[in-house]
Amino acid sequence: MTAEIIDIRTDRNDALDQACAVLSRGFPVAIPTETVYGLAADATNPSAITRIYETKGRPRFNPLICHMADVAMAERYASFDPISRRLAEAFWPGPLTLILPLIPKSGIHPLATAGLDTVGIRLPFGFAADLIRSFGKPLAAPSANTSGKVSPTSAGHVAGDLGSKLKLILDGGASSVGVESTIIRVEGETVRLLRPGGVAAEEIEALIGRAVVRPEGPAAIIEAPGMLASHYAPSAAVRLNATHVAPGEALIRLGSDPIEGIEQAKAVFDLSPSGDLAEAAANLFDYLKKADAVGATRIAVTAIPDTGLGEAINDRLVRAAAPRE
Ligand code: TXA
Ligand code: MG
């Protein structure tokens, strides 16, 4: 099987019709979202969800985010505390996932939540929201990559990784945010950041008027099982906080500071020449894949500020550099 690719920018209605047809038959469809491409399937259909796990080679204890068309749809499946509701009002549609108590028997299949009594919910922008509205049911969608690999930010990335396993890939061009959603869990008065992502933690803190609690090592891994240490891994080793380039290395940099040995780099990728972290996030996964493809022994990455979207970028880079199992 080779996936059919439909461009939503030129054939939007055809894309919606074909995607709904494939989803109704219980198969996953790769779809563009503002964060990364998702491997979407009917969140109420156990065989459809099973196909997501099989296609990605994903462990089944790792729950999926359920994507909704609007808040009214989300309220049918999850209960909102007041702080989560404020976050939803401020950041939806957009790159924020809220972990909320699942309403029992509401229809989300336990395979999607890995049997937990909570559900991760996100309202995406644009085409993805329109597709969910047309389909009429929530779509469970992890990132559309083989488990443990770099997440896809273009239809080409998805085709290169999973094209032989899928029926349909929808092409919406490059994902505008480029890193996955920020995952938040509110527990009483405590607002916990389970995964830094496309909404900067500082923006959330400014809205709620207090600090979010950041993950502390292994606890975070149990809380969000997808956050395994060695994740987002290219084939080449990754070396962080590089201040020079060694022979055989590819370089990923931010800004234009001079770097020793840059002339011997196998290739140089600049995440953002002006040092803009949103631009850097949008380019991150594409450049990791491109740096991997030049046959470098290792990918050296210069230090990235840990503020704003830099926190999500550094989270993904640390995982990409983590020792492999
Ligand atoms: O931007 C995104 O979030 C993308 C797009 C496609 O929406 N999706 C995405 O999904 O990144 P995935 O499966 O790659 O990451 C979902 C993360 C995993 O780390 C999972 O463990 C966590 O969300 N998660 C999902 N449901 C959870 C729950 N009920 N409790 C705790 N963590 C949960
Ligand atoms: Mg993922």
Describe the protein's architecture and organization.
- Residues 218-222 have low confidence and may be disordered.
- The protein has two domains: 4-223, DHBP synthase (Alpha-Beta Complex); 237-321, Threonylcarbamoyl-AMP synthase, C-terminal domain (Rossmann fold, 3-Layer(aba) Sandwich).
- It has helices at 12-24, 46-56, 71-75, 82-91, 126-135, 155-162, 201-208, 218-223, 277-293, 310-321, and strands spanning 4-7, 29-31, 38-42, 65-67, 96-101, 118-122, 139-140, 168-171, 182-187, 190-195, 237-239, 249-253, 268-270, 298-301.
- The protein has 325 residues and is an alpha/beta fold.
- The longest helix is centred in the C-terminal third of the chain and has 17 residues, at 277-293.
- Strands 2-3-7-4-6-5-9-10 form an eight-stranded mixed β-sheet, sandwiched between helices. The protein has a four-stranded parallel β-sheet with strand order 11-14-12-13, covered by helices on one side. A two-stranded parallel sheet has the order 1-8.
- The structure holds threonylcarbamoyladenylate (TXA) and magnesium ion.
- Residues 142-143, 151 line the site of magnesium ion.
- This is Threonylcarbamoyl-AMP synthase.
What would the keywords be for this entry?
325 residues, alpha/beta, DHBP synthase, Rossmann fold, 2 domains, eight-stranded mixed β-sheet, four-stranded parallel β-sheet, 10 helices, 14 strands, globular, binds threonylcarbamoyladenylate, binds magnesium ion, EC 2.7.7.87
Please sum up the structure shown:
The chain is α/β, with parallel strands linked by helices.
